[in-house]
Amino acid sequence: MNLTGPPKIFPNYGDLNGTGLQNEDLDSNQFIDLEFPEELFISKLNIYETYHPGRLAAIKFRNKKLKFWKTVWESSGDALEIDKSRIFCPELKKVLFKTNQIRIELCNADNSFSQLDAIEMIGTRHIIDCVRSETNLRKDLEKLLHSENLCDVQFEVDGQILKAHRNILISRSDYFRTLLCENLRPDRLSKPVHLSNITLESFRALLYYFYTDCIKDDTSVEICCELIRLSDWYEIPKLRNEAYMFCNRVINIENVCDLYNAAINKEPKLEEIEKICLKFISKNFSALQNLELNRLPTELVTKCSQFNSLFKY
Predict the structure, then answer these.
(1) What's this model's pTM, rounded to 2 decimal places?
(2) Domains in the chain and their CATH numbers?
(3) SS3 label, residue 185
(4) Phi, psi dihedral angles at 295 (to 5 degrees)
(5) Maximum CA pair distance of the chain?
(6) What is the CA 139 to chain-centroid distance, rounded?
(7) Helices (H), 39-151
(8) Positive/negative CA dihedral, 90, 74, 121, 13
(9) What's the whole-number mean pLDDT along residues 34-39?
(10) Residue 241 and residue 252: Cα distance in Å, rounded?
(11) Could you tell me which residues come within 8 angstroms of residue 117 by beta carbon, excluding any fewer than 6 positions away?
(12) pLDDT class for 210, splitting at 50, 70, 90?
């Protein structure tokens, strides 16, 4: 068993050598104890599951002073049918002690076990209560966006009207500050502002980012590529970086072809995203060969096949 260091198998899926947990390692109702180099106030765990995800029963943190294991997450007990690797980020209960010891309890579902590739622990050396306040503020602003209370500006996109709050937009983008303040026409606030360079779904994603300062987890890679382009058009450099990191984080065997096509089939081409895709395709060429490669240009497939050594992470 070897769960140390960065992922070795992910994002590949299957009963593969090198994963931290093999089927024959465990009987039912057993657990893995992990000890990290440094004690932290743990806020997040990233659990890389590469085979039969969803077989975890509980997660516990060790309180060294009181010498007991605190349960911070428990499974609902519902069986999951997932046939691809995933990064599982359980919603952890808040604890007020530092630790570097974690227990992962496993359950035997249909005589099959999850295979784990790596576990990443994220936390702080000092307790920070502002995280909860930041989360609440984000949720409140998201509610404000959806409720449309006191909206004072309208946009027409793809024939539909979307409402927003001018103060939020002008505080987030120099483009909208100029549009809605400095160059404000008398009819700007009484009539919808027509936007022709953006799709409805892209503008919804842009508004969500304006209000919450984040990209929704279920955002498609195509929309994320559009956000990168819009970040230049609407002068939002931070959004460009966020969207780039989002694509880098969510790329997998199922969406890499969509991501590549979204990056190169529209101007301006997104060279950074193209490079991410080239590296991923080259590294996972054998897994993709019978699945998705027919959706990519022939010259790209040939290039990745012949020169995959050039695209190592």
Answers:
(1) 0.56
(2) 23-124 (2.60.120.260), 129-217 (3.30.710.10)
(3) coil
(4) -90, 0
(5) 73
(6) 18
(7) 130-147
(8) negative
(9) 93
(10) 19
(11) 3, 7, 8, 9, 10, 18, 19, 20, 48, 49, 50, 85
(12) very high
